[in-house]
Design brief:
By secondary structure, the protein is an all-alpha fold. 72% of the residues lie in helices and 0% in strands. Helix 4 packs parallel to helix 7.
Length: 189
Amino acid sequence: MNYESVRMETKSKIIRAFWEFYKNTNIEKITVKNITDACGIYRTTFYLHFSDIYAILELIEEELLKELRAVSGEALRTEEERQERRNEIFAMLRKNSDYLRVLLDGRHHPAFAEAYKQELIRRISMGHSVDLEQCDEKTRRIAGHTLSAMVDLFFTLAEEEGLSEEELFGIVEGYLRKGILATLTGGKG
């Protein structure tokens, strides 16, 4: 193993150890010693990679936002394009679900949760040829609250109900196209 691969593996190990603590502990209670003990590294090794505990969280959040922003924001014209976008977004959400379930609940870092949800909402709405930034304030707020609730519901249903990708996106698509009650009642409401 060369120096760079060892360095990257150590950094990954630090991030994983931090995350195990962060999932169950307030960040103020996590110490560098907790991390170094869990990783079996020296304190100086930690500081070669991060300035403090908060820098690890910032890196995780930056990477999650960067990945989301990499999803195309252009309007989609065909159902096939929308399906590709849904698949891309769902794969990304599934890949990052361990992080997102914790970070999006708003208890740990509400500013990140809001920024991520807003970016996700923007990506979803652009897929439906709607640019919320071009809408009036009232429409933006209503759509924003609705889509934010859908994002929360999305994670809750995926985790608690064990719905498939197809079922989850069917619900989201139905909400966007037909409305909530029509989707839930199969058009009988």
